[in-house]
DNA sequence: CGGAGTCCTG
């Protein structure tokens, strides 16, 4: 697995163009026109590195092959080749194809593919370049591109210097050599081997070969996050290559991404001064980036500016702006722009509907969706597909997947096709519900109807699999996406790293992390944060700090999450003073502590019993105007409860409601637990009703707490009644609910009731461990209920769980206690046989 | 331009 990852994460070394130096002098440049006689020595030296020294040139054999090829049809040629193929070596193939490339290019290519496909011949680099030149000469550009792409991906990153040397030495005088160079640089760039692309460009400059704007654009795009982008742009200007409108919009985009907004705007307007018009694409980029950072008004003014230039916004312009408005919740204005869109003759498309549907559902405004539908009706537009899209998105967001599937059936029966976004939305909902296998079969369905899952689709699934703990399966998918040439990004990597650290071992996760970071391409603080959090959680604060230092060596910036995880780590290791010190250093990094930061520290203080200290931190937080969250208050409630300040905690709960910070299940569980401990079951159940009143669904933990409370504080029959009531209501209960009740019945000596519950628990499919059996057997033994002990002993053994020493001694004691000598000796024999008897 | 979600606190 790791090998794969290594292949995909090609290093991106940052070096400016100026610093590029040639690794070999060009004095060896040979300008011999390739011909049958003269090229033999040249090729022998050029390919010396990758040919076997035993390979020698046999002109006679070559001549024979040529003769055979020229005189016969392809089929016969293939047969003829078969007789030669054992005697062929790469030098000969280079020669033959090289010669043919000049005389009869078509035949050369045919021969090449014959050798490659039918005889499995591994061609040399020389041969590849001959074919490349032939393809270039014939202007078969798409073929040339994929051919060279295959070549550079085979050679891998860092291969540019040696390939350039070959290309420069042997092929300089070939027709179309310039085109091959350009395409060569282009494919390196497209394959994200940026430094190789830069190397090729530098060589081209030396050789006075001009790169095309397509190549430059691709490179600019790949470098748009870095400051090298502008260096490349200087190169473009110097080279005098005619720029396309994409050049501008890539640069505008890149400057925005580097937070150089002023520069981006200036650049955008500069095009006007140069006599040409800013393009719609360039405007769209600006609108999009400004929306992204929340400057909707600025985005809108750029939108208006387009009209002033006499440019008409396209569907992209509208969708970008409508999206921006939806994100900030200005649905009304978004709808106005949709009107405007139609008035200007731009049809809203499926993207527009997706954006609006999502916008309405984010705000919980289903009626807004109907607004759109009415609108569509009015315009007489194709309604069905719009309604379906909106409804599907809506149901996905509320998690009602069954409804989505119904709609899907309906759509399909009416001959409509789901688009790839619909599929992704559906996949995402399925994953969130943990229904991964259905998601996977939907992926196959997508593929079977010809939709291509992309990075996002795969990432959703990989993330879903990792969340379910199926990391191995996730990795399989990760490999599959690579084979389909879909390359993972930090989202994907983050999901895998998270899954590995959660389900696998920490060292496995670390190995993966090291491969990613050492490649140099992935520089993402999130990956560091995940790793640091893991170390922190396991109390390995030393390793966490070590990684923190590495962040700076990698020249990336820590985020507040980094510090929060570190503080969490110090708290876990009970080093609260250090945690405090780290909290105080946050501001020196230009970051602001969040509620999470303070809550982490407060929780640690609370656990330590330092409630005063906790409350001090709370007030410090308030003076620094950092809003406490419901988690913060839950911690405070916990602290107050610890000191039996129940009335205060109830008061806090009320003030939370008043402040609009809704308490969640955790908050209620905490406070209910406190009232149970204080033996106030009436209040505990009252709080439970309050939860329902606030539309909060009590979870299994809530019920465990309540059942336990009843067991401890009330008559056991009340607990039994409540338990059956919950079961009748089909409320999901977890194992602790059962074990709590079992424990209580054992303590009371009601073995048959305990027995029945235990069997129920087994029937429900809960995983029963030796701990559960021994707890049961222990309690029964202590009460000398040996017949029941025997029953459970048999159950346990038939469940495939073997005895341990501790449980043997307990049972032996019980048998002896009741004078059941037969059983005692029988078990003693087993105990000794299994070597469990203590010395 | 739409569909992943930056994996930190109870």
From TrEMBL:
The keyword Repeat applies. Keywords: Repeat. InterPro entries: PPR_rpt (IPR002885), TPR-like_helical_dom_sf (IPR011990). PPR repeats lie at residues 244-278, 279-313, 314-348, 349-383, 384-418, 419-453, 454-488, 524-558, 559-593, 594-628, 629-663, 664-698, 699-733, 734-768. The keyword Repeat applies. Pfam families: PPR, PPR_1, PPR_2. Gene3D superfamilies: Tetratricopeptide repeat domain. GO terms for molecular function: mRNA binding. NCBIfam families: PPR. Belongs to the PPR family. P subfamily. This is Pentatricopeptide repeat-containing protein. The lineage of its organism: Eukaryota, Viridiplantae, Streptophyta, Embryophyta, Tracheophyta.
